[in-house]
Specification:
The protein has 304 residues and is mainly α. The chain has helices at 2-5, 10-22, 26-39, 44-56, 60-73, 78-90, 94-107, 112-124, 128-141, 146-158, 162-175, 180-192, 196-209, 214-227, 232-252. It starts with a helix and ends in a 52-residue tail after the last helix.
């Protein structure tokens, strides 16, 4: 109605574009954002949303152009800086992404998700020293993030610093007490430290909590054999479970694990691949705080 009344109302054109955006009619949304910019060249909402719609449809070059223009208008705005970093990351330009995330850290130095993101990018670039630094910083500000705990635990375990790794895996187990993976990781660390009795107790505790976990039983059989202990009961339980899995596989036509079954490997390094972290959920253009200690898979929000 507003655009029908006044075709030269930039705000109304932006809102019309937003309606098309939410209906996933991105070409129409882009048309209205461009029309709004034609009416008002420095319309912040139109430029920002134009960047988002180009990002959504994979026009990264045009998205960068929009946010570059916005960055000249709002040079210190964290949201604009974040969008530039995020788009460069999506393009695979890790060094450019690191550059913009580092600029963002100067504006919001205590944001754990940004610090984790920089650590992840350094890890992709094979710079483990910088990766470790930024993951440690992220952990310092938010010590309950599972991806950060997993990465740090695995890093220290692969560096044969198993006592340090245990601290992170035990903390992860406190946060996710129903995930057997963390207990198995702690047990594996003890085993690699030759603390066999502690490893055995950890595997036995995991087996008591998850009697149908195949990997846990494999660890128990293996460790009991190494220690010269009776392992027949665990082996019989393992054989029964594997037999049941084979029967289900035959009946379904493909192999499948029990829901929730751990996929921790039997061989070295005995740890899953380090997580890279999720995409950050953002709010409006001016971001008052960055203490968003939640998962990062939200997506970008338009400006009204």
């Amino acid at each position: 109605i507003a655009t029908q009344h006044d075709r030269y109302n930039a705000k109304a054109l932006v809102n019309k574009g937003n309606c098309f955006f939410h209906k996933e009619e991105y070409d129409n949304a882009k048309e209205y954002y461009l029309e709004a910019i034609g009416v008002e060249a420095n319309c912040i909402e139109a430029i920002f949303n134009l960047g988002l719609v180009n990002k959504r449809i994979g026009n990264y070059e045009e998205a960068i152009q929009a946010f570059d223009k916005l960055q000249t208008i709002l040079p210190s705005n964290p949201e604009v800086i974040y969008q530039l970093a995020s788009i460069y990351e999506m393009c695979g330009s890790n060094q450019q992404a690191i550059k913009w995330y580092n600029i963002l850290v100067t504006r919001v130095p205590s944001d754990p998700s940004v610090l984790q993101k920089i650590g992840s990018l350094h890890y992709k670039e094979k710079d483990e020293i910088q990766a470790l630094h930024f993951y440690q910083e992220s952990y310092r500000y938010y010590p309950s993030n599972i991806d950060t705990l997993s990465w740090l635990g695995i890093y220290y375990a692969k560096s044969d610093l198993h006592e340090k790794a245990i601290q992170f895996f035990e903390r992860a187990a406190m946060i996710q007490p129903n995930d057997v993976k963390w207990k198995l990781m702690v047990g594996t660390c003890y085993r690699k430290m030759n603390a066999y009795q502690q490893a055995l107790k950890m595997y036995q505790d995991a087996n008591a909590q998850y009697p149908d976990n195949v990997d846990c039983l494999k660890y128990l059989v293996m460790l009991c054999k190494e220690l010269g202990l009776n392992y027949e009961a665990y082996a019989a339980q393992l054989k029964k479970l594997e037999r049941g899995m084979e029967l289900r596989s035959d009946s379904m036509g493909y192999a499948d694990l029990e829901p929730g079954a751990s996929r921790v490997p039997m061989q070295a390094p005995d740890y899953p691949a380090a997580g890279a972290g999720g995409e950050r959920k953002r709010g409006r253009l001016i971001v008052p705080t960055h203490d968003e200690h939640a998962a990062d898979d939200g997506g970008d929000e338009l400006l009204p």
